[in-house]
Design goal:
This protein is an alpha+beta fold. Helices cover about 40% and strands about 15% of the residues. The N and C termini lie far apart (about 35 Å).
């Protein structure tokens, strides 16, 4: 868990500063009152995070498809890193209004970070995000 926490924190920090990402949801990035709750209840941020790309659904799908180290799967993960675009998997059956109500953007990606090297995962995300 320590390795997974550290790797996910590094990935979340990278995504939070990337110009194609408009928002990252990760407990380790919490501020204010949320940070106090996270610090009181958790020993790390965990391996799950989500991000909203500044992109269309189609552009987001292309980013996901360009990844080499993340497997595309709607699982909560394990030792291997996984990624999914919720509108195409876990939330595909919801209409647009309900997805918006639940905060599921068309350009959302959900990552389950495993035990791979953080620098390798970040490089993979960078190449997928930076490709035209």
């Amino acid at each position: 868990m320590r390795a997974q926490n550290a790797t996910a924190a590094a990935v979340a920090s990278f995504l939070a500063t990337h110009p194609r990402i408009s928002r990252v949801h990760y407990p380790g990035l919490a501020t204010g009152e949320a940070k106090r709750v996270v610090n009181a209840q958790m020993r790390g941020g965990g391996g799950m995070l989500s991000a909203i790309l500044d992109a269309t659904a189609e552009q987001t799908a292309a980013v996901v498809d360009r990844l080499r180290l993340f497997a595309i799967a709607p699982s909560l993960g394990g030792v291997e890193s996984l990624i999914t675009q919720p509108i195409t998997t876990t939330h595909h059956g919801l209409d647009t209004t309900e997805r918006v109500r639940r905060g599921i953007a068309d350009s959302m990606i959900r990552l389950s970070v495993g035990l791979e090297d953080a620098d390798d995962l970040i490089a993979d995300l960078a190449q997928a995000l930076d490709a035209s």
